[in-house]
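Budget justification, computational time. The allocation requested in the original proposal was used primarily to generate structure tokens for proteins on the priority list. As evidence of use, we reproduce two of the resulting records. The first is shown immediately below.
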Amino acid sequence: MVDDNQFALITGTSSGLGYEMAQFLLEEGFTVIGVSRRGTNLEHPQFIDILCDIKDEAAVEEMYELIGNHTDKLHMIILNAGIFEMSPLIETSTKEFADHLTTNVVGAFHILKHSNDFLVEDETHIITVSSIASRKGLANISAYSASKFALNGMIESLREEWSHLGVRFSTLMPGAIATPIWDEGDMDLPRDQMMSVDDFMHVFQMISRSPKHVQFPEVVFLHKKGLFK
């Protein structure tokens, strides 16, 4: 449990991993600011639900103004929001490719760019939910993989820029996780080669509870059968 009232910002809390991480941090005693385009049904006295399209820089600036009504410090920032679609490169439209970059990279850029006034020196922990597809290009997910490679590069650069602040960065690179996203379209992939949401949360809990001087630059984890998608 946290020692005092600490604030965590999580993007993409409407469902899935973002929702689960928000629930866990609330149980840990954080005040959680959840950011998503459509909101969430999560109800808790220490949960603040903010509707925001992180692709829109002006909307992100307004979001931080709202956060400023509650706190001037963010002890944890979790970059989780993102999109994922599968298709061969020649069947991927320019719009679909650009949408991946705009949501998965530019959205995170907006969150980080405007977080500066809320950083707590030697304490703020920035956790990025990336993917194993950021280390290994995989067939039929060129747009997604490109966006995650770019996201990791931005985080690595910012780790150097903000080193004087003592901000720590941890980047999670999970393999496939069995969520409803795999039920969409024609993605018939074996679920027995995927991790569960609980598997992901096991790693997240360890990282979020780690001592303030410890960071995890790259944490790669996946099901032992090794499905890299």
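The second record produced under the same allocation is shown here.
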Amino acid sequence: MSPAAIEGPAVWEGSHIDLREEGVRLLSPGEIGEIGAALRHLHSLREIDFPEITPQSFPLPTLGAYLAGLGDELRFGRGFLLLRGLPRERYSLDDLARIYAGLGAHIGRLSPQSYQGELLGHVIDVSDIETEARGYHAGGAQRMHTDNCDIVSLLCVRGAKSGGISRFVSAAAVHNRLLEERPDLLEALYGEYVFRRMERDAEYGDGRLVKNVVIFSRDTGQLTCNVSGSYPHRAVRAGDAVMTPLQIEALEEMKRISSSPDLYLDMTIGEGDIQFLNNRTILHGRTGYEDWPAVAERRHLMRLWLQIASWPPLPANQGMHGPADHLPWLRQRRPLMEVPSRYLAEMTRRKAELAGA
């Protein structure tokens, strides 16, 4: 059966969206007060680890109800939201992480983000410190892609010297543009590609290094999209697969359309702002940026991957990671490894060691 056009709120063009009116929710003074009270309650328990931050240990009597419904809002709506108004300057860096995890726990389950088992990731350029730094630990622009979760979220700790704007696009709008202009390429994206994931993610996960993946699917009853520009090319370089010219062209055309100024939206995430994206219906990336040299002053965002219990499971032939990886990844996790002050101190120490080597 040939692909059909997608309809509904998930189909939008950035040139027709007023983000201030349609994409931003401002926290009220009362909700900010609830967050402060929840943080005080959390501290009263003891120094608890991130897996123990739950709706019970971080209670939000009214804001919690809104957050609990955010999954459906993102699933059935346009798929994006910026939560603004958290007073960043009021909290220490570590308390900001605790608040972020607490808010996320009201929305869904915090999911590990790599073989290391981290529940809260740090999006910061440490490519001068880490060998083979992954995309979220490297600087520069990022092409449009999806992650491996239901909702991907970012909280801005510190902005770049310049640039580094969040950019995202409706996967359904990209789908429909392909249908209009190149239906043959759209059909290829419904077909299987061979993806090769990162070796350690496979080794410490379910053991599967290579996987057959479709970019677009409608198996859940809604359009879902999962795409990475690097994984299929890793498979080709490793000799796991040979992409046909049509498959290669389909990925490149999808990349081109995703970067169309009339389709994408640019969102400036200010310090303390929290972005939420439906990872199944939104492709996201970022513009290039100029950073600061000192690790503690660099552009820094914290990231959550959230799984929503009420959503149907992602099709088995979409996404590079899944539930079979999560438990073994979590066995690699070290207590309190996500605490930002500890993470930044470790990166600073390692940078100093490299400078003195």
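A brief technical remark on that second record: The chain has one domain: 22-356.
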